[in-house]
Structures are given as C-alpha cells and as structure tokens.
C-alpha cells in the first residue's frame, strides 16, 4: 500500500504540486465522528428474532426479482437459489452466510490522506445531499440545477469544517447531457476538493468510467487494493433489483469499491405501514443485495442502507422527521450491527419548500435520529429540501453548521479530574460567579460548541446590523465561503490525464438527454 502511495504521488509535475501544497491555504476539516455515547436500541431480543425469521421467510418463500440480468440469475442458481423466471428464492441462511464475507469496517481513501475516513464501528461519516434535479437560493429561487451549481456545492462541501465527505450527485446538472454529466461531476469532486467522494451509478459503463478515473487519480494498483469510492445502490422496493443498479454494483464490487445497498422505503407505498413489517422487508432486501455483491467478489466492501420515510395519506407526499421513521431507523441500526456491517441512514430530511421552521424541526429530528441510531455513513447530511427534489445553498450551510453539534454530542461527557472542576467550585464558593475563575479562563474557548452561523447578539445590536434572519445570515455565509475558496493542489500530470480522459470519452459518443 505504501509503495502504491509513493508511485501515485511521484507522477508528472510533482515538484510544482509539492510547492503549491506548501503555499496553499489549509482548510480545516474535523475528523470523522467517533462516538463515545451509546446507541439507542428500540428492539428487544424477541423482536429482533421475529424480524430476522420473517426476513428469511420472505427470501425463501416469496423471493426477490433480479430483472433483465441473466448473469445475476446464473450466479444465484450456482449459489443454490431457486430460480423461477426472474424470481430468486434464497434458502434460509444462505443470504446471511454470503453476507458474512463483507468487512465490518473499511477505509475510504481520499487523495489527501488526511481526509481518509473509516466507515463502520463507532464512527460516523457525514456526506452532503444527493440527487436533486433542482436547486434553490434566496436570490434565484427554485430552478433546474446546472454544472455551475454543482461545482459551487462541491466548493462549499470542501470549505465546510464538519463535512467529512464530498458526496456524489450533490445536484443533477441538467445543462450537461445525461450520458456525459457523470464525467464532469467526477472531475469536479476530484479537482475542486480533496475529500472522499462517490461514483456514478446511473449506468454500468458510467460506474466503469468512475473506476477508470480513480485509477488515474490514485494509481491502478492502489485502487485495486484499496477503497477510494463509495456509491449508492438503491433497491427498487418492494424486493426488485434492476439491471442498472445491479450492473453498477457488479462493476464496483469487482474493483473492490464500496456500495451502499439501500432499500428506498416509503412506508405505506413501497413497504407496509407497520414498523415491524417495514423492518422485515428492509432486512430481506439488504441481505439479498449484499449477498449478491459477495457473489461477485467475496470481501467487497458494502454498507447496510436504509432510506426511510412515510407517506401522508391525504396528499400522497413523503413525510420526514416522523416518529415512525425514527423507530425504523433505530431498529435497522440494530439489525445492521447484528450482521456486523456498517450502517447508512438519516440525513437533513424535510418536506418543506424553504429553509423554514418546518425544515428546522424535521431536519433536527432526522439528524439526531441518525446520531443515536448508530449510523456510520450519513448521506444527505446537509442541503436537502422539498423531499429531496431540491438542493438548497442556504440550507446546505445551515445544516453543515449544525453538524458541529453532532460532533460535540458524540464526544460524550468527560469525568477526568479537570472536568470534575472541584477546584473551580472551591475557588468560587457560595454566592460567587465563574466568569473570572481559573478553570473558566483555561477552558472558555473550547468548553461550549459554538455555531458559526446563528446570531446571539442583544436585540439592539441585531436590529442595528439589519435585523437579519437565519436565511439572510446563511446567504451571506454561502458567499463568504465561495469568496475565500482556494482550490486544493493537484499534481499537474494527473490533472492533465483526467482532462484528457474526459475529453476522449465525451468525443466518443453523441449527446443524449434521456
């Protein structure tokens, strides 16, 4: 691994890149969260056993569909599953046995080694919103996303202290042809940020492009021996695995790259209305998907995913931050830990159209649920609006600011001698105050988590400064981050090779917008 790292860093333009790195402005990024607090466990042992037994029944008796994918059916047949048409029935215990070869933790490397993240165990990695076709800001309102918007989000993610990951399709740049936009998005993640990122899953060949570009960025041997991408593989709930998503999974698994195998659950529409029924379906779908990844390559890194929302029975719209979603997420976390797998869920979820009070309540519920449920990889941690249809610039920085509170909460409570503060209590005594005591003076800078966005000034000062609400403060912060952004240095030879690859791939096919 060290040899591959040395080879990667020694290619073309190394001297200039090293000089640039020495003079570049350093952007502070907090290390991924390491929990020192307990997970909230909502299911007792009997409930877990019921769900696990029922999930095995679903796989063995009802089965799952692998559509338009004869190779997948052949793999399952060879493994011992019963195949009827495109329906795969998996004997009891087989899926869980196959899943056992997946690692319980893995490292996703970044081109800046200091930004590498450890996914699994007691860790929590935070990544931004994924997939919206629209963007929203205070000046332009709601509109279709462009590549310029995408690049702006990547820069904001790079500048955000509490985000550990650059994400993937932070918004969908609709001004670039569908068959080519993945190349520009990957290029943005690779050049505008040095944090870890996600690969393309919209077509298997685009997943292969993602691998090829990573081999340019990191070196081919390094990519084959290490995980440098995490990618989102959604299951078409209920219990359908399509050829596009599975084709992308096959590419990534073959190349030792991580996949989030995630049911897309809208309770009442794509899963039962009951928590127990939904958890049964989630577990069955995840086991089938992860087992399939291990048929492709035993030991391929995976994440147990659960995207969970319920449905408003009056309008049919998805709802977020609800008690039922929390119950399912807490339960899914327990099921993932029982399987010894990293867990993905939660995010800055809201159905609101604006970064308003509804958005704040729903997002706060969803973020805290993620922290307490033991999530290891939180996609959509900032920027989500309107049920995932919109990526909001203001909400991106609002949410990213609040992620700092998760870091502080996850640290737990210190009880060392200094934290017990007995000296301070004795120094101040009855009727005194702690503002000037030695203990306060020694710790006042780090004692309390502090928002970089909210206004805590007295009313008179706030009024004199323009009576700005949080939306106005967030608009200002977005602009300040963009104005102070400096691109992280990248070896010139690697940059040129990536540029050439993108140009050749684009020239090899006509534009397609479908």
UniProtKB/TrEMBL annotation:
Q: Which UniProt keywords apply?
A: Methyltransferase, Transferase
User: Which EC class does it fall in?
Assistant: transferase
Enzyme Commission code(s) on record: 2.1.1.-
Q: Name one GO biological process term.
A: methylation
Entry's Gene3D superfamilies?
A: Trimethylamine methyltransferase-like (3.20.20.480)
Mind telling me what this protein is named? Answer: Methyltransferase
Instruction: Write down the superkingdom of origin.
Output: Bacteria
Q: Which organism is it from?
A: Marivita cryptomonadis
From the Swiss-Prot or TrEMBL record, what is one GO molecular function term? methyltransferase activity
Where do the record's region annotations for Disordered lie? 1-21
Identify its protein family.
Belongs to the trimethylamine methyltransferase family.
